[in-house]
């Protein structure tokens, strides 16, 4: 039979593939039927090759609310490699604060002027209009669990913030986080929409509502 040479997927692989495509169709259907909200978490899907893992809806809401309180009335918030927190903040339309997103993934350029292309390898390669110490709080989630990535991201954070820092990274980075940013671990434990192998924690350098 000529078909003998054609590679066949196992029934398990085929079922998993069909489930994936069905989930995709359902997501697209929901976007159409509900009126697509470009700021909802998942509107831009994770790209694991860029080490992207979105927060759960509950975690993103908690971090966004913490940022609003910490920034204060009329405050400015910067989200560095933390797009799901940015999206939650934008859902709070009309609140008295402003926010921008610094992100390597250019898909987030759909957010217009609030999007700033950011590569942690060049931590101070930022637009001229992004003035030093012009944000009331900086929320950052470095894409990789390495001291090099944290150290370079820390340069950006310290350049942007007036003082307050909210860092989300692995529990194994506690010592390096204290060393490079002077932040301490919080009781609040962030969750992701997909479970990660590494334990994740939040760190702050101010009296926060996350303890």
From TrEMBL:
Keyword Cell inner membrane appears in the UniProt entry: no
Name of the protein this chain belongs to: EFMT1 methyltransferase
Species name: Thalassarche chlororhynchos
Pfam families recorded: N6-adenineMlase (PF10237)
Record-level GO BP terms: methylation
Catalyses which reaction(s): L-lysyl-[protein] + 3 S-adenosyl-L-methionine = N(6),N(6),N(6)-trimethyl-L-lysyl-[protein] + 3 S-adenosyl-L-homocysteine + 3 H(+)
One MF annotation (Gene Ontology) recorded for this entry: nucleic acid binding
GO terms for cellular component: cytoplasm
Annotated localization: Cytoplasm
HAMAP family (alphabetical): Methyltr_EFM5
Main location: cytoplasm
Record keywords, A-Z: Cytoplasm, Methyltransferase, Transferase
Presence of keyword Disulfide bond: no
Extent of the signal sequence: none
């Amino acid at each position: 039979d000529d078909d003998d040479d054609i590679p066949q997927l196992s029934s398990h692989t085929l079922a998993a593939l069909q489930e994936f495509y069905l989930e995709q169709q359902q997501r697209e259907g929901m976007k159409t039927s509900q009126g697509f909200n470009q700021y909802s978490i998942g509107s831009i899907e994770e790209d694991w090759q860029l080490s992207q893992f979105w927060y759960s809806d509950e975690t993103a809401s908690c971090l966004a609310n913490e940022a609003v309180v910490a920034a204060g009335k009329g405050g400015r918030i910067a989200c560095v490699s933390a797009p799901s927190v940015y999206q939650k903040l934008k859902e709070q339309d009309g609140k008295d604060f402003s926010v921008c997103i610094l992100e390597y993934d250019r898909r987030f350029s759909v957010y217009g002027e609030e999007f700033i292309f950011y590569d942690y390898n060049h931590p101070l390669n930022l637009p001229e209009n992004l003035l030093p110490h012009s944000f009331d709080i900086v929320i950052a989630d470095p894409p990789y669990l390495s001291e090099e990535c944290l150290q370079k991201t820390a340069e950006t954070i310290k350049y942007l913030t007036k003082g307050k820092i909210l860092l989300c990274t692995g529990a194994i980075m506690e010592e390096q986080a204290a060393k490079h940013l002077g932040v301490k671990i919080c009781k609040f434990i962030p969750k992701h929409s997909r479970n990660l192998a590494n334990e994740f924690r939040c760190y702050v350098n101010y009296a926060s509502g996350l303890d």
